[in-house]
């Protein structure tokens, strides 16, 4: 991954975490590594733990960030969530996705997809 893509991804994850916190979600952790990959954001809302996949693109002219959640990515997300839940005795969880369109210095367009899997 190029330095530019990493910077855009990190910016998008920060935007998503701030946006979720403004909406009343408690941010538990960010960039959590599991044997199956990384969980971008772990949040809590009421008694539900939410594993959030963040997808960021600078432009949606030809493609939308949420289209990057392929079947392989979905499997990875489920495996990560199951592993983390088992290790932290979490019974109620869901997987959400947040699509961020924009770049640093601009006002991002944020789309939240709840219970994507």
Quick overview:
The chain has 117 residues and is an alpha+beta fold. Helices cover 32% and strands 36% of the residues. A 5-stranded mixed sheet has the order 1-2-3-4-5.
What do you see in this structure?
- This protein has 117 residues and is of the alpha+beta class.
- It has a single domain, classed as Trna Endonuclease, Chain: A, domain 1, CATH 3.40.1350.10.
- The chain is 32% helix and 36% strand.
- The chain has 2 helices and 5 strands; from the N terminus they run αβββαββ.
- The protein has helices spanning 3-22, 71-87, and strands spanning 26-34, 37-45, 48-57, 93-101, 109-113.
- A 5-stranded mixed beta sheet has the order 1-2-3-4-5.
- Strand 3, helix 2 and strand 4 (93-101) form a beta-alpha-beta unit.
- The radius of gyration is 14 Å and the shape is globular.
- The two termini are 26 Å apart.
């Amino acid at each position: 991954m190029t330095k530019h893509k990493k910077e855009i991804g990190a910016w998008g994850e920060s935007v998503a975490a701030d946006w979720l916190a403004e909406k009343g979600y408690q941010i538990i952790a960010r960039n959590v590594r599991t044997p199956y990959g990384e969980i971008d954001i772990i949040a809590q809302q009421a008694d539900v733990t939410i594993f959030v996949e963040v997808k960021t693109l600078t432009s949606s002219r030809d493609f939308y960030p949420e289209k990057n959640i392929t079947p392989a990515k979905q499997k990875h997300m489920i495996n990560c969530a199951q592993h983390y839940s088992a290790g932290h005795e979490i019974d109620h969880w869901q997987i959400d996705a947040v699509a961020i369109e924009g770049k640093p210095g601009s006002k991002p367009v944020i789309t939240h997809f709840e219970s994507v899997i």
